[in-house]
Amino acid sequence: MRYRLLGRTGLRVSELFLGAMTFGEQDGVGAPPEECARIVDTYAEAGGNVIDTAVNYRDGLSETIVGELLKGRRDRFVLSTKYTCSRNGEDPNAAGNHRKNLTLSLETSLRRLGTDYIDVYWVHIWDRNTPIEETMRALDDAVRSGKVLYIGISDAPAWLVSRANTLAELRGWTEFASLQVPYSLLNRDIERELLPMAEAFGMSVAAWSPLQGGILSGKYTRPGGVGGDEPARLDADSIGEREHTVARAVQSAADELGVSPSQIALAWTMAHSSAVHPIVGARRVEQLVDNLGAAELTLPAEVVAQLEETTGFRPGFPTEFIDGTSPWVYGAAGQRVVPRRFR
């Protein structure tokens, strides 16, 4: 496992993040504590050091289990959790990105996790009813208090994240070091605005659902794939032709390179941008072991191109318009200018 720097900070984080959304059994779904222990130990032995959870995962059971499993070794890990989602559906102030919910959610997470600080504290989703100025100032206060070391934001539009970090820079507040968004071969939306924005700000990108709910894991392209002996989360008949086409392309690349489809799908997210850290989640340690193999896989450029061609993705306006008019706008000499790279 290799390590990268989190955004523009000096914090070292592993290429693959471990998602703890599956930690805790509810209604027969999720991983029991003993399996969670095996998962964390296996991840740590592979060199992984980032565990990502949230105040609302499994109604708090995820944070509680993570806290128990990190006793005696908490400082070895980069512990990441989130707030925004409701802690009490009957209380309107128990949700959102305002200062009150941030304060109470943070104290709840610290207690469950059995720690006095959070390494990376995430805004879980954009709250339209809370001014971003209030959120950024409250987050900065949490950092200054020592209860939070770094901050990130999940599931928000690029213009909002840009405004937040610009405000923080101008006012001397803590800036978002990382962005958490969905990203996979079947969901490349972030390439339009969010990923270029993150690269321009030097932010790390934590990619959730890199296997698109298991569609890219091989479950639907061959019998007996990783997790194939478990009930699938999706009905195969509900998956569209585009999804099947991309899944078959991933399976073909996996067969060609002698690896698993999951490893191909995860490696693609990292091949497309050095800013991306896939979040790998598992209900069984065998699934995690397979996913961890992606850290050792470098996809040939032709395989990356073949995979992307099957997705039919288009960046749309304004990217296509700007690219298409560049020869006219900048002239012949302009085409020989080496482009700036943000990372």
UniProtKB/TrEMBL annotation:
Record InterPro entries: AKR_Detox_Biosynth, NAD(P)_OxRdtase_dom_sf, NADP_OxRdtase_dom
Keyword list, A-Z: Oxidoreductase
Example of a GO MF term: oxidoreductase activity
Short name of any one Pfam family annotated for the protein: Aldo_ket_red
Stretches assigned to the NADP-dependent oxidoreductase domain: 16-309
Keyword Oxidoreductase: yes
This protein's GO CC annotations: cytosol
CDD domains, A to Z: AKR_AKR9A_9B
Protein name: Aldo/keto reductase
Organism whose genome encodes this protein: Streptomyces cupreus
